[in-house]
């Protein structure tokens, strides 16, 4: 298949991967468009790293098809890895090499511009060129891995927990550079537990739970459709009114009832505010971490419905 500007940078079609009796990925389908920061969210064991390894041809799916930059992940993994920048959660580096020697070694696999760019990034990250990898802190090792991944200015940057071990300033600079890459037409695929950081940079988010994809949505659209309602019931009111829309989460304490509602229309919220059993309604937009937590708590039946919606949206991205 020949990649064009309209070809998704990443495409998964009904991908399933098992490890013994455990299903790491369960018929996952999604597409990632060029020039976006795509964030994959999920708890530990959700299948995020497995998805990345399937995409890069480091492990084969049991069923379905995975493509990166128009290349088949099963058959063309080496070509994919030559064109993609990848930072693993626990990057493997040659401990006996120095920071500069690692860059010189990696330069043999890429074009002539790799080494100068790597050295520029290493200096920017304040990495001591003559220090051996084994003597570096966890944060400095992470910076070496980032510099290596960016050295050939890849079309696609795949990051598995990339800011782990980085100090706050470098983390902020790095994340801002991801936005700049997307603005320049490059693509970033980011898997992270740092949801508050993801919220600052992501264009599109996907939520994976127990190998199933719950949603794939533009972040601005997702946040625009979800509101938190804090309903205070009037004195003597026994039951709160019905609330239209998709209830992602609800909790009640004494006279207060808190709900996370998706696709609730202004008229529906006004109806709650004007209901005789309601004394007051506070409305606010929740952050991504609160939305993520709500989706982690939905029932298996609701998760299956959400997965169907995710596949539909992913096909449109």
Polypeptide structure, described:
The chain is α/β, with parallel strands linked by helices and 317 residues long. The protein is 35% helix and 29% strand. The protein has 11 helices and 14 strands. The strands form 3 sheets. The protein has a 6-stranded mixed sheet, with helices on both faces. Strands 2-1-4-5 form a 4-stranded antiparallel sheet. Strands 12-13-11-14 form a 4-stranded antiparallel sheet. Strand 9 and strand 10 form a beta hairpin. Helix 3 runs antiparallel to helix 4 and helix 4 packs antiparallel against helix 5. The chain is elongated, with a radius of gyration of 22 Å. The chain starts with 9 loop residues before the first strand and ends with a helix. The C terminus is likely disordered.
Measured by DSSP, the beta-strand proportion falls in: 25-35%
Spatial sequence of strands, sheet with the most strands: 6-7-8-3-9-10
The DSSP helix count reads: 11
* CA(first)-CA(last) distance: 20 Å
- Gyration radius, rounded: 22 Å
């Amino acid at each position: 298949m020949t990649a064009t500007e309209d070809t998704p940078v990443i495409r998964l079609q009904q991908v399933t991967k098992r490890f013994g009796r455990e299903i790491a990925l369960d018929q996952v389908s999604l597409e990632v468009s060029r020039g976006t920061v795509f964030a994959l969210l999920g708890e530990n064991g959700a299948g995020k790293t497995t998805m990345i390894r399937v995409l890069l041809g480091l492990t084969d799916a049991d069923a379905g098809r995975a493509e990166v930059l128009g290349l088949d992940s099963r058959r063309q993994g080496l070509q994919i890895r030559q064109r993609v920048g990848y930072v693993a959660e626990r990057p493997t580096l040659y401990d006996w090499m120095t920071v500069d020697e690692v860059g010189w070694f990696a330069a043999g696999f890429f074009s002539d511009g790799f080494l100068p760019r790597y050295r520029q990034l290493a200096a920017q990250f304040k990495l001591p060129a003559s220090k051996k990898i084994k003597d570096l802190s966890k944060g400095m090792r992470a910076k070496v891995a980032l510099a290596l991944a960016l050295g050939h200015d890849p079309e696609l940057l795949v990051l598995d927990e990339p800011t782990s071990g980085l100090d706050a300033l470098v983390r902020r600079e790095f994340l801002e550079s991801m936005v700049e890459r997307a603005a320049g037409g490059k693509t970033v695929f980011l898997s992270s537990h740092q949801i508050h950081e993801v919220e600052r940079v992501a264009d599109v988010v996907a939520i994976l739970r127990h190998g199933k994809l719950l949603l794939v949505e533009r972040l601005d659209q997702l946040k625009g459709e979800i509101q938190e309602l804090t309903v205070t019931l009037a004195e003597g009111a026994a039951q709160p009114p019905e609330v239209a829309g998709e209830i992602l989460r609800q909790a009640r304490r004494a006279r207060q009832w808190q709900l996370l509602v998706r696709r609730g229309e202004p008229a529906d919220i006004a109806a709650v505010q004007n209901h005789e059993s309601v004394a007051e309604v506070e409305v606010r937009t929740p952050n991504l971490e609160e939305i993520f937590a709500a989706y982690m708590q939905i029932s298996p039946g609701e998760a299956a419905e959400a997965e169907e919606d995710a596949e539909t949206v992913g096909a449109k991205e």
